[in-house]
Amino acid sequence: MCKYNLHIWNFFRNFAAEINLAYYGLMTIALFGNTMKSETMSEVSHILEFMKRRGVNVLLSQELRQELNIRDLPSFPDGADARPENEPIDFAVSVGGDGTFLTTASIIGDRNIPILGINCGHLGFLADVQTKDVDLILTQLLDGQYTIEQARCSKSVAGKRI
Fold first, then answer.
1. Which end of the chain is more exposed for a tag (fewer CB within 10 A), N or C?
2. Which pLDDT band, with edges at 50, 70 and 90, does 77 fall under?
3. Burial of 10 (0-12, 13-18, 19+ CB in 10 A)
4. Which residues are CB-neighbours of 75 under 8 A, at least 6 positions away?
5. pLDDT one-digit tens code per residue, 40-73
6. Nearest CA-CA partner of 143 in 42, 24, 31, 1
């Protein structure tokens, strides 16, 4: 079996996973997706089932929770001052394309949560994992077989870089 090069984006500080959190049943992911596309919603459902089988805690974006009408899973808190209740989030998984990835990054904000982008479209630069590789990639993620790429962020207000 060929090992896929799994790269996860982290926009803020260095992050290193030293233990296999999923093995101990401690991993929590936040799941985001483009609710306007049926292919994406199908992939989100597949990922939810995969995570359930592996015993991973999942927080849904508020949009996904509403679209899927799932009440038994908590939602990821939205807004600049919102913080997840009770437990840290190990990873965010963004399902859609680069636009969905950027939306996910804006919701994550400065929480220091690495983001894995799954591309349901044609070409993805940020969301570069293809749907055909999702099971392999998620298995590698849960088994701690990944690297995290640091990305630079800039903030601008009224066209001025801060």
1. N
2. low
3. middle
4. 59, 60, 61, 62, 65
5. 899 999 999 999 999 998 988 888 888 888 877 7
6. 24
Domain boundaries in the chain? 7-14+22-161
Known catalytic residues? Answer: 98
Q: Quick check: 3 and 145 in contact, CB under 8 A? A: yes
Query: CB within 8 A of 52, min separation 6: which ones?
Result: 58
Structure tokens at 82: 């919102």
- Residue 3 clears pLDDT 80, i.e. is over it: no
Q: Is the pTM of this model over 0.70?
A: yes
CA distances in angstroms from 50 to 3, 31, 142, listed in the order given: 19, 12, 11
Number of neighbouring beta carbons within 10 Å of residue 54? 15
Angle between helices 134-142 and 38-54 (to 10 degrees): 40
> What's the alpha-carbon Rg for the chain, to the nearest Å?
15
* Amino acid type, 8: I
* CATH code of the domain made up of 7-14+22-161: 3.40.50.10330
